[in-house]
């Protein structure tokens, strides 16, 4: 068996990743795909057992131990063909660690693996170890632990799955934060014992999910919509145009409440996530690989604007993974009372690469900005669009390195707004 990949310094190369896959295939043939296996990474050194998915992550993240030349922990016999002595590993095998990793409930372990693979990318592959320390992947191990821990002994639900379901219930049931906390405390009181790491309030639950990349950026805005206190203006206390104070409350003791706050949901990570998931990756290429061009208008790709764009920008059109976007916005009253004069403006971005039964559906309509009220921004909406425009310029001019989960390769993703409403 070829083991030359074990000495490769580039752990993102196709040779190394194919070697990892061949190792896992060899191991599962001997111990069975349903069991946890010893992890031969440089940190675990076969002293810990994990699922195959987590072992794969460890081998890519930390590298395999170069001294592990005979895979005796995974079924390979020594050259003498004598049976290996399992005395040293008996404690591990019989300790019940094989059952620690739960069944693929809600496919959370697979999702975490895809998040990790998409998060460690770096333009300079020689600096890959530094990528593993970045903020977007630094809590990966903790998330994987929460995807394995049970809420209580004997439970069928893990901590991460439990919190995801409870927050999903909160959103669809339109529960307030206070009602959510009360419900969680009731559940807690019914359990005779529970894991100490379970977050029992909305604040701790959001911290857990923030590591999944589901957060947003708060950007202070001028009271009269002149500027955003962002980038070159981030440290200003007053607007340079109207001289109005940045804060409506500033007691000089640390308490500062700005007049307006723009909620900014970065677009690039979410577009990369579409290619980081095997479920949506192929759908993002549907318009090129599976669409039937018979002259009937069923999808934006059937329209003349799409075809004219391809002719005008052939380099962009050459890769079907480049993203075509639609952008829409409108004001609404968040309080549901039409007699109240208040207007909040969400900016919605839709990826048109997806097939027609998905591209306009709610799960794929991405809110990029939430412009605060109480009055419509009018012409000043361009002030609030700056973070999104900066991202779109980067996506158009330079592109971003992205992991394609369908074939396990990297490409430079570009994007363009095809139309806005």
UniProtKB/TrEMBL annotation:
- Domain of life assignment: Eukaryota
Q: What name appears for this protein in its UniProt entry?
A: Uncharacterized protein
Q: Please spell out the taxonomic lineage of the organism that makes this protein.
A: Eukaryota, Viridiplantae, Streptophyta, Embryophyta, Tracheophyta
